[in-house]
Amino acid sequence: MRRLNWLGSAAASAVLAVAALGVFGGGEAAAQNKQLTLCWAAWDPANALVELGKDFTKQSGIEMKYEFVPWTSYADRFLNELNSHGKLCDLIIGDSQWIGGAAENKWYVKLNDFFDKEKISMDDFVPATVVGYSQWPKNTPNYWALPAMADAVGWTYRKDWFSRPEIQSAFKAKYGRDLAPPKTYDELKQIGEFFQGREIDGKKVYGAYIFTERGSEGITMGVTNVLYNYGFSYENPKKAYQMQGFVNSPDAAKGLEFYKELYKCCTAPGMTNAYMQEGLDAFKSGQVAMQMNWFAFFPGLYKDPNVGGDKIGFFVNPAGPNGHFTQLGGQGISVVATSDHKDDALTYIKWFAQPAVQQKWWQIGGYSALKAVVDAPDFPKSAAFAPQFLESMGIVKDFWAEPSYAQLLLDTQKRVHDYVVADKGTAQQALDLLVKDWTKVFKEQGKEVASQ
Amino acid sequence: MIPRVSEPAKSRAAWRVRGLSDRTIAWLFIAPTITLLLAINIFPLVWMIRLSFTNLNLSMSYLPLRFVGLDNFIDILTDEEVWIRLQTTAQFVICSVALQVVIGFGLALLINRQFRGHSFWTTIILLPMMLSPAVVGNFWTLLLQPQIGPFNSLISLFTGVPPSSFSMTGQVALAPWTIVLVDTWMWAPYVMLICLAGLRSIPDYIYEAAEVDRASPWRQFWSITLPMAVPFLMLAVLFRAIENFKMFDMVNLLTSGGPGSTTELVSITLKRAAFEKWRTGYSSALAIILFVTVFGAANIYVKALNKVKQR
Question: What homologous superfamily is domain B79-309 in, according to CATH?
């Protein structure tokens, strides 16, 4: 009995002690229990972000949890989450094309007041990233995200192959010029044809790797790099949603034809449904001379023991006959409107926007969009691909970011894949059908679409 | 001493003793199942029927929800693209089910004989159908890879065609046959299992009587085995046809519906409309059309099956 009494007293003391901690140390304990979930795609920069996030936890006491989803299901997974007003993500690094839908559907918290209060200026960020990742409607001062991961399509090439004397002389003998990273798409095709089927170090290699994936966004993100440079526009710059003659102009059709020629002449067999990972595999295994891919992967490729370092070179998306652009990638970071931890999420964004954090972000494998980082005098020398990245960010164009972007994207995937990979119809027919598809989508969205 | 109990208290106690009626107890037992069915199957179905008459698009949920009558159904039934997808699906179902029935029945005939290692080979044959379609899709993607995949090398060995000169999943002429091939590889064992049950149910005395009558093995097959296995074959056709009509995972992994839209089955179209384009109203209507099609066809088929059984 005495023992029981003693136990009872001890238990009561423990309860009191816990209660006292709750009263006096509650703030600290609560901070220690705070947690934020950040949602993004599963890829190299996400690993860098996990590393970076450790500093945030150290400073704020807020634990970071991550939900990374492979690119092929990234849009499905997170748009479903946002659509269903789920609470999985407090912060989301959402694709640039989502911004219209996210703003209109109020999935994201509007950040204008927060930016004003914390003195975060969008003028401090690369303009293309602000328009691409943050603003909706475009080119208006309505901000829904902080530019988080600047990205664009660029190219890698086998510098070691390009520099071999026997390969250089063979190229010069055939084309009458030095073998060098291409500046135009015609040059790129020549180089692709030159390497296609060539034997290097006893192994058959291929000319180029380009995006052809059918299911999500792959072939669209590839073909637009050529289309823009041949004269394709999404709409009449003077009349919104007037696509006839811009999407399906004869020049745009030539661009599409060129992409198909490139696919037929210079890619490895079986690359009929290939996107980022297949490109990385093809390049890392020494299969291709040139690879189209996102800059986000270039730090990893540069570090690759087999094809990185001195063996790899980088070049900007080549120019076409009617311009010089490249496809914008990348994402902004937003606070999810249904999150129960909006204040903590905003604390994260405030922390992430700091120049020192952005500098570290770039150093460990992320791509900062902060001017203080990318416009610094030593930036071009900070990485082998930094000059090309900087140049690319100055010439980017993006796909539609309308709320109906998914329909517009899937229609493009279908029409382009049908023509390029499945040999169905002509380029002109594919683009004419695309105009028809897009017109239907915009009309459903309640937009006025002028045909002429 | 036993306490005295008053009359009303007695009847209350009797009610408690008698408890609930059998009918009530039965309802109590099935109530959780019915509630679950209503919540998981019936309610979503009714909700989907409701949505099919609206313009709901989840990526634009800020737009006012409008009742559009039969517009979605008319849109679907007048869309040439949907009819092409239905044709592709029908071709896939017919080819793969036909092949599975032929191969499955053939395997059942072989396995039905007693031989050494019988159990071992039965297990080996059944392995593919035990795998998940996602696993099958992924490893066949590797097997069919033109440069490193063994399938092309094998074809090259027999035909002399260079292995990397063709792509089973990437060429318009080959991709439809590839999905039929992989589906047959996976599901012919299932048909075999059903047929085997059928073959084992044929009484031995019928064969013994046929042998007394000096019927040849060929004659026995045509007059006994096949007619008696037909109901089982029809059952296998029904199961496989319904499954293949809604085939999604394996084809999505193998070809994503490509090249172009060559192998885009109607289930892939439905998934894209519902969960990628977010056209909820439209996709609900498409789902209803598909449901009615499968339900109607299955009903007709079951009636035919019953007639065969009666014979």
Answer: MetI-like (1.10.3720.10)
